Amino acid sequence: MEAAMGLMRRIPPKQSETALSALLSLLPQHSSDLLSQVDQPLQVLCDAECGKEFILCEYNRDADSYRYYEGGVSSVYMWEDENEGFVACFLIKKDGSMSGHGRRGYLQEGAWDAIHVIEVRQEEEIAHYSLTSTVMLSLTTNDESSGTFNLSGSIRRQMNMDLPVSEGHLCNMGRMIEEMESKLRNSLDQVYFGKTKEMVCTLRPPSELVQMKLPDS
Amino acid sequence: MSDEEESGETQLTDKEKIEIAKWFLLNSPVGEIQYVAKDVRAVLKDERVYRIAAAEAFPLYNKSHMICLEFPDRSGEVLVTSFSEIDKDEYIDPRTTQVAIVDHVKQVCTDARPANDDELPSSYIEEYRCALDAEVIKYVSEAYPKGICCVYCTNGKDVEEPGSDFEFVVVISAARLSPQNFCNGSWRSIWNVEFKDDLQLVEVRGKLQVGAHYFEEGNVQLDAKHECRDSTMFQPPDDCAVSLTNIIRHHETEYLNSLQTSYLKLPDTTFKDLRRKLPVTRTLFPWHNTMQFSLTRDIQKNLGLESSE
Questions:
Q1: What does pLDDT average to over chain B?
Q2: Which residue, of A54, B170, B204, B285, has the fewest CB within 10 Å?
Q3: A95 vs A70, which has greater pLDDT?
Q4: What are the beta bridge partners of residue A79?
Q5: Is it the case that residue A214 has pLDDT exceeding 50?
Q6: Residue B194 has pLDDT above 70, yes or no
Q7: CA B299, CA B84: separation in Å to the nearest integer?
Q8: Per UniProt, what is one Pfam family of this protein (chain A) (predicted)?
Q9: What pLDDT score does A67 carry?
Q10: Cβ–Cβ of B266/A189 closer than 8 Å?
Q11: How is A81-118 classified by DSSP, letter by letter?
């Protein structure tokens, strides 16, 4: 399994679906581990009855959504776990391409998939929240003068918090998720994208520094 | 890729396993194929299948990434590319006129021999090749902290005098491997140079490819490509060399600038289209007061819950 997870960290993120199905066929005995540990971009279906889109994932129940992303679809699923608590799974998918919900029209292809799983255990007035979040994203721009530019990747983080239940679970979980997503987004922007940019400048340092602004996003 | 199988009953055929192993190896980021190979071997648990996959995948990977190997006697380096390939394990270095024998899977040069006359270009062609090589070396050493380059004649190497067309390929490659910092990257340029005698013109086509991989607690990769064209007059070797190198320098510098621009645009444009930093209201979401949004009223009605205040 360790080797399998190692492979998932090296293959191009855009190929993660192919990689996962390859691993599933090579290691059928580990399929439940693989499916639970390897995140995949989310799939969206449309509910014919109310015309609302919802996201498919293994935890299947309920559906509802929220417009937070200038477009984008989200779904929330919940279920009880064995420890008398419950687990909530918040899924968000945004297609930021020109043909999707990309308002500014820069992206030929763009996708943001977020998976937040929170385990909740309540003890009297305090609830213990354990959040594991994964963000997968891909963006591609394509034009004559600069060719094809694609950045894609995924990161996963954990956060644990103990909060009073006075304002309700939704409030607590919502705040945690918002904070986490912000952290992940900023991390992706500054650290991850920043590192790849640093690498490019290391490979071939820009000679005309005058033409460049300082690389501070 | 393989078809869906019934749970646990159907085994993958050897052929399917080989294809999967090859796929992982070929998709390794720059400088990481040995790590990927180790993981693939562990996942396959089948030495024989692994060996077959490696024997097929490594040469393709090496040529695509244009890996640079040192001659055993340290007399120079050879680039493993499709342009320098004499035979499946033999690659020529026109600069030292040697042919390297390589072990693709181990990624080393195991032996070397002098190149035969029929493997080398004519002295007329060599004049052009050598002049261009010298200019490109100068350019690469200025522009790339750790760059390697080579010029190969890919067509018309036996042309003895003016009156015929011939073709070169200029290869520039720079890789920065920092696995301890979880970061690897590469820049690869392939410049096709066609000398057209009847038009007295030299046509240039460039293919630039830049990649970077950062994988500390995550997996983020940059994959950028660009193509360009240009041309210059057919002149004597030294003048051609200078013009051609100027063309290469110009386009590569422009491309680097456009990469910088793409990165600069990320926070306000491209990335923002995927997820804003803050909601459109410019404040954090009011989780404690979600009643203002009717959707939650819908849920509550449907599930018969109390209001979540």
A1: 87
A2: B285
A3: A95
A4: A87
A5: no
A6: yes
A7: 66
A8: F_actin_cap_B
A9: 36
A10: yes
A11: -TTS-EEEEEEEEEE-STTTT-TT---SEEEEEEEEEE
- What single-letter amino acid sits at B216? E
**Is B129 exposed, middle or buried (CB count within 10 Å of its CB: 0-12, 13-18, 19+)?**
buried
pLDDT at site B277: 58
Distance CA A84, CA A94 (A): 33
* Chain A residues closer than 8 Å to B20 by CB: 22, 25-26
Nearest CA in chain A to B227: A147
The size of the A-B interface in CB pairs under 8 A is: 271
Amino acid found at B48: R
DSSP A188: I
Give the residue with greater pLDDT, B244 vs B3: B244
d(CA A30, CA B268): 42
Looking at residue A104, its pLDDT comes to 58
Q: Which of B17, B27, B38 shows the shortest C-beta gap to A12?
A: B27
Within 8 A by CB and 6+ apart from B147, the residues are A204, B140, B141, B172, B173, B174, B187
Comparing A67-81, A85-99, B5-19, B272-286, which segment has the lowest mean pLDDT? B272-286
The number of angstroms, rounded, from the C-alpha of B35 to the middle of its chain's C-alpha atoms is 18
Q: Which two tokens stand for residue B48?
A: 């024989």
Provide the residue type at B252 as one letter: E
Dist CA B124 CA B115 (whole Å): 18
Q: What is the ipTM of this complex?
A: 0.79
Query: Given a cut of 70, is residue B47 above it in pLDDT?
Result: yes
Give the pLDDT confidence score for residue A94 in this predicted structure: 80
pLDDT tens digits along B157-175: 999 989 999 999 999 999 9
